[in-house]
Amino acid sequence: MHPTTTWKDKLFAALIFFTRLPFWRIYQPQKEAYAHVVELWPLTGWLTATLTAATMYGCAQIMPTTTAIILAFVMRLLLTGALHEDGLADFLDGFGAGRNDAQQTLRVMKDSHIGTYGVLGLILYVALLFTTLAQLPITIAALVVLAADPFAKMMAAQITQMLPYARTAEQAKNKVIYRAMSTKGKLLLAIQGLLPLIPLCWYVGLPYECLVLPGIVFYMLYQLMRRKINGYTGDCCGALFLIVELSFVLSFVVFYYQNNPFAT
């Protein structure tokens, strides 16, 4: 690590990179710090998840739950600038239209226009996430969001350690390639991703499927990226986060309905 890159640099770099809040007005981190932002990606999830869950729970006290859920995710989109949703759309377009040609896949992913796969994928993602959360009591739905966001970001960050970057630094949108994490960095990443699970575990319980299914989904996507482009991109990271998060929510809803057969 560059000697001038401090923990403060990395924290502010992560907050600036993964949110649209004006943290840059408070502190300008060293450029080198942006190569380490994935180490603190789940920590930015603490911020986005807390504000999303708080918006969901608070709005549900004065309006229908379905409206509250929509407003909560509008809040998250505003916080992140739809960074991850853009990645999901590009990922689906690239891997759907790129066939077996790695370079074509990367070209399609870099294209700023959204295609059929991206549009359909975003519609299905939003529909599944909304309908599953809407079936839960609002307190539990808020706790699921609070847990799923950092956990999924912890999982998605692993791809940067398992595969090489598929482009050069000059071709990257942020002109940075993420660095390998130290043992300390990996431990910190795990703590950030697992701690927010505690409130959900305490309130209603957490089945192992909620952790296993996201792991299986992650591994399948890892294999797809390895075979298709032999690497990852920023769009791959964003897509991984959203798909793993959705698998967490879906598996929790299945668990909840198995244990509460009369829930509506």
Automatic annotation (TrEMBL):
Its main location: membrane. HAMAP family: CobS (MF_00719). Its cofactor is Mg(2+). Its EC number is 2.7.8.26. This is Adenosylcobinamide-GDP ribazoletransferase. Keywords: Cell membrane, Cobalamin biosynthesis, Magnesium, Membrane, Transferase, Transmembrane, Transmembrane helix. It comes from Segatella oulorum F0390. Joins adenosylcobinamide-GDP and alpha-ribazole to generate adenosylcobalamin (Ado-cobalamin). Also synthesizes adenosylcobalamin 5'-phosphate from adenosylcobinamide-GDP and alpha-ribazole 5'-phosphate. It is a multi-pass membrane protein. The keyword Lipoprotein does not apply. Signal peptide: none annotated.
